[in-house]
Amino acid sequence: MKRKLLLITAIICLTPTFLFSQAYQAKATLDSNRILIGDYLNVRLSVTVPNGMPVNIPKLSQQMLDTFRIDLIGNSKIDTIRNERLTTFKQTITITAFDSGSYVFPGIPIFGADTNILAQTEPLFFQVNTISVDTTAAFRDIKQPVKVPLTFKEVLPFILITLAVAAIFALLIYFIIKFRKKQKPKEILVKPKPKVRPDILALQALERLRLKKLWQEGKIKQFYTELTEIIRTYLEGRYEVNAMEMVSSDILEELSSKEIPHEMREKLRELLLIADLVKFAKWDPMPTDHDLCFKNAREFVEKTAEIISNENKSKEPKKE
């Protein structure tokens, strides 16, 4: 009775282990068991495990196969196939051998998360054969190259290329000779246009401003803006001061060292003051002030231009 109880207990204890090991399966097959030297041979690996269970399939390397005189060509990616209970991993390992004889492809162990071997493939045996040679046949000399005459179609491209290169060189020589014989063009001296005096430009601009009749149409600020721009441009050309970038006080201070009659200085000061009041203080002067500022601007240009004319006349040589 005791022996029966021990036997039942051992069966009960070993049954889960047996079932657990049966759940992990590893199988490897060969495409063929015979190949010629240098031919490729595929090893089909298939590993089946319960869903969700960890598994480690080692990746074969050349170093692992050196002992078995097998050369590794490559490992394919692992394909995964799942059903309700099991997961199957499939991989193709390509190998070859460069010596005739019998070979053994080793079994591949499959590990779990704790590095324990869960399953292992069976070793695979295959034969590598050489190409059969008829040793009874006589040796023959190596056949010499056969001379094949050139055809016109084969020679035509070389003829066309030669003619094209010759034509290019001929044209190049022609243009070089023509270029050297060609006389140099005579230099045409263009007299520079005389520079228009700043006073003339200013008077022309003032006349255009008068014809616009801006202040008569109520455009007071625009009238004084254009009027002061004309005067500032004239001052830059006449006295070489950066009037366009200066405020009115800086312009008057810069002109203090210039030869300008006192009356003209006062007219310029009055003009700039009224223009600043209109542009910045929104002052609305009388119509008589508009006319007076315009006259002061024109008179300032004319009077300071007379100084230029007088200076030029004094520099001319006296006639005997």
List the SSEs and their pairings.
Layout: H1 2-23, E1 25-30, E2 34-36, E3 41-50, H2 62-65, E4 71-75, E5 79-82, E6 86-96, E7 101-105, E8 109-111, E9 117-120, E10 124-129, H3 152-181, H4 198-212, H5 220-239, H6 248-254, H7 262-281, H8 287-315
Parallel strand pairs: 2-10
Antiparallel strand pairs: 1-3, 3-6, 4-6, 5-6, 7-10, 8-9
What does it look like?
The protein has 320 residues and is of the alpha+beta class. It has 2 domains: 14-129, Immunoglobulins (Immunoglobulin-like, Sandwich), CATH 2.60.40.10; 198-308, no CATH class. Helix content is 46%, strand content 18%. The protein is built from 8 helices and 10 strands. It has helices at residues 2-23, 62-65, 152-181, 198-212, 220-239, 248-254, 262-281, 287-315; strands spanning 25-30, 34-36, 41-50, 71-75, 79-82, 86-96, 101-105, 109-111, 117-120, 124-129. The strands form 3 sheets. Strands 1, 3, 4, 5 and 6 form a 5-stranded antiparallel sheet that branches. A 3-stranded mixed sheet has the order 2-10-7, with no helix packed on it. It has a two-stranded antiparallel sheet with strand order 8-9. A hairpin with a 5-residue loop joins strand 8 and strand 9. Helix 5 packs across helix 7. The chain is elongated and about 130 Å long.
